[in-house]
Specification:
Elements: H1 2-22, E1 30-35, H2 43-47, H3 49-59, E2 64-69, H4 80-86, E3 91-94, H5 105-109, H6 118-126, H7 130-142, E4 144-152, E5 158-160, E6 174-176, H8 180-187, E7 191-193, H9 200-205, E8 211-212, H10 217-223, H11 225-228, E9 231-234, E10 242-249, H12 250-254, H13 258-291, E11 296-299, H14 302-325, H15 330-348
Parallel strand pairs: 1-2, 1-3, 6-7, 6-8, 9-11
Antiparallel strand pairs: 3-10, 4-10, 5-8, 5-9
Helix pairs in contact: 3-13, 7-15, 10-13, 14-15
Amino acid sequence: MFKLKTLGSVVAATALLGAVAATPVQAQKYNLKLTSFVPAKGGFWNNYMGRFIKAVDLMTNGEVKIKGFGVGVLAGPFDGWAAVQKGTADICYCYPGFALNADPANGIFAGMVGGMPMEEFMHWFVSGDGTKLLTEMRSKTQKLVPVVTGFGSTEIFLHSHKKIQTIADLKGMKIRTAGAWADILKRVGASPTVLPPADIYTALERRVIDGTEFVTPSTNIKLGFHKIAKYIIVPGIHSPAHMNEAVFSESTWKSMPKQIQEQIRAAGLYAGFRTAMQIGIEDLAAMEAMSKGKNEWVSLTPEAQAKIKDLGREWSEEQAKTQSAKGNDWMARVSQSYWGFYDRWKKYGTYRHN
């Protein structure tokens, strides 16, 4: 009798264990806070940060939930990387050009003056060495993990109170900008200033600055720069393409399974591609709308465009030499990869229709 009871207990226990084993394991949820450099819920936010947040939710089947915060809530517009390092935020949605002072290589990752247009730029980042170099640099110098996302195309050169056609016309101008272009403008006699995006309109309206570049036409038209500055200067050769990054701390990143990590990287690329395509469509509509307005449209002379291309490459080479002399080879490595890829594209891409 004792044996029968024992046997019955074993059978019951085995059945119970089987039932537990058959019960699906609850997937772990990750709730992360994201800081940005623009206010939440505007057009820029929806096209960039919002698209990435939704893509992560989609790709991870809801296992990773990101709550986005606009600029100034968790960190200032230029402090996203530090906020992640300190643990104030789990992710910063950052523009690499804002980190130029930390390392000039960031200026190339942001999209280089006189450099690759969006298609070539995306090829370098996605299938070339761009993402690999950015990931290695962030890891070794900051203990951060970047997810490449938020690609965009050419910007308007300037919304300006002054007519600009030549390099000489830039002399003495107070221009809002960021990245390598700010450094290069000093060399031609302009006075660049780096302003938070939220402050640009007021500065332009009050003529604290003479002109501004920011992002692409579809963003600028929403911000209303064309309403307060008479001249629209094209083409945006100072910023032929751009990219943003969603940056995690290494500890946060490593806490997630490899599958989740790959899903987030896939979400970054998906969101980045969708952003680029959507902005392209919206830019056409914005250009059409602004062309019907009262602005005077001005084209940079061919000589000015050629000079800006030269200045961009010269700046890259000089920065590479300077940084290498200090024992920092990141600028040399990134510059060589970026310009080398662009040269190959121009040499062997002649079969492509332009």
